[in-house]
Every structure is written in structure tokens, then in C-alpha cells.
Amino acid sequence: MRVRVRDLLFEIEDCRRQMVEMALKSSFADEQVVDLSVRLDDLLNQYQGCKHH
After folding, report:
1. Would you say 3 and 45 are in contact if contact means Cβ atoms under 8 Å apart?
2. Cα-atom radius of gyration of the chain, to the nearest Å?
3. What are residue 31's phi and psi, to 5 degrees?
4. Does the N terminus or the C terminus of the chain have fewer Cβ atoms within 10 A?
5. pLDDT at 52 over 80
């Protein structure tokens, strides 16, 4: 379980970084930025689920 949480935290940070970098180059409404935002939401939900089990 700890490995999964650590991996999720890494993925969350990487996705967040990509999203911000892309948004700064284009806009927060860019389709790719929105896709990354949805992915980030999913990762955060997974992380919350791991914390409660």
C-alpha cells in the first residue's frame, strides 16, 4: 500500500506540474490543460481512497 501511495503522490505532482506549465504556455481553457486537470482530479480521488483504507 505504501508503494502505491508514494507512486500516486509522484504522479499527482508530475501531472500538476505538466498542467501548470502547459496552461502558462497556452491557457487554462486549452483542451489539453483540461484533460490534465481531469486526470489530476482522478489521481487525487485515488489518493484520498488510499488514505481512507
Report:
1. no
2. 12
3. -60, -40
4. C
5. no
Amino acid at site 11: E
Question: pTM of the full predicted structure?
Answer: 0.88
H helix intervals, the chain: 2-25, 31-51
Q: How many residues does the chain have?
A: 53
Query: How many CA atoms lie less than 13 Å away from 19 in the CB half-sphere?
Result: 18
40-46, long-range: CB < 8 A, 24+ apart: 40/12, 40/15, 40/16, 43/8, 43/11, 43/12, 43/15, 44/12, 46/8
Give the whole-number percent of the chain exceeding pLDDT 90. 85
Read off the pLDDT of residues 7-18 as tens digits, 9 standing for 90 and up.
999 999 999 999
